[in-house]
Structure of NADH-quinone oxidoreductase subunit H:
Amino acid sequence: MISLAVDDLSYFGRDPWWLVVVKAVFCFAFAMLTVLFSIVWERKVVAWMQLRIGPNRHGPWGMLQSLADGIKLMLKEDVVVKGADKFVYVLAPVVAAIPAFMSFAVVPFGPADNEISVFGHRTPMQLTDLPVGVLYILATASVGIYGIVLAGWSSGSTYPLLGGLRSTAQMISYEIAMGISFAAVFLYSHSMSTSQIVATQQHTWYVLLLPVSFLVYMVAMVGETNRAPFDLPEAEGELVGGFNTEYSSIKFAMFMLAEYVNMVTVSAVATTLFLGGWRAPWPISTFWAGANHGWWPLLWFTVKIQLLLFVFIWLRGTLPRMRYDQFMKLGWKVLIPVSMVWLMLVASVRALRNENYDFQRVLLYVGGGVLAVLLISLAADVFRDRAAKKAEGAGQAGQEGPGDRFDPMAGGFPVPPKPGQTLPPVPRRRSRAPEAAEHQLVGKDGDDA
């Protein structure tokens, strides 16, 4: 049995009410300033990738461009469509934005036992912590999806409704894989408390111990935040603008704010669970004893978040948008099975290690089980391919009736074929390349004559 450690949360809950307010304002300000910077940084990086200049008018080096965009959106005309459910229509942006900030309540910006001085009071660099802090983050992230769904439904329009439904399916698909990747961290840390998870990464970060969980979470967090190449709920080429098509002015700005705050939130969670949290990187922590004390942990935490935000920007500037069926296939047929198999391997290794098995025997048992499963799956694929070829040969031997042929225009509009059906051959114009070569040869001979 895996023994669970008792979380030490005695450092929290001792602050006076005004200090709690100050720390809450700090969390809000940290998220807002990071969002303002990340918007400018995204436009700068994408412009650099595309050999453009980028924003360079508002403020030094264009650093105030996102602030100018926010003021511009607030001064635009606020239009409410006639067929909308006005109460839900106004409530949806608020529901999308507020839960994104709530997750920062349990994010550690520094060690709990290294208290800093704020107006003469000693306090940890974290608002609060819970024995189930990671589950609290998952819960608040799930509530934020309701804002997108309600926005699509309350607009009274077709395209926003489709965008809201896509967002629902996207959240269900990718949050399962995200939760399973968290479970591997829980097995190693013996805790769901964010401060305790960071404390257990003192010697080795979980990105090295659990690389598959980290990669699954990286893909899932891009899908959770509706960012390219997974921005299907607001695909301009298909849904005009998606769930926010009928929104303008400050309501549209709140949806944009919620998207970027969610990016910061999932980056902070990835930093906390896999990248050592507030701990200094390896070269710095070896020769500098005070790197993880005082206000320095806030610097390392911020740098790690900015690196993960760069990954978001990098993906948007390089990858095209996926098709919706490819997106769902990746979530259900790749991420979830891979994360479940990886969790079983991690649980097996931890159970064997708790029974005091040495590393060689653990590797032999786990590696032998994986090899056996791979051989069984290979044999199953071989027999399945033989059966498919036999069925295909039997189908070709028989005569296909006119009623069995697939007609893509049967309903009056083109539809894709079902599994097992094939499209009829497309008539193509005969290539005229040989004739052109012949005329060119004749012309050359004539010129030579």
User: Anything to note?
Assistant: The first helix runs from residue 17 to 49. The longest strand covers residues 116-118.
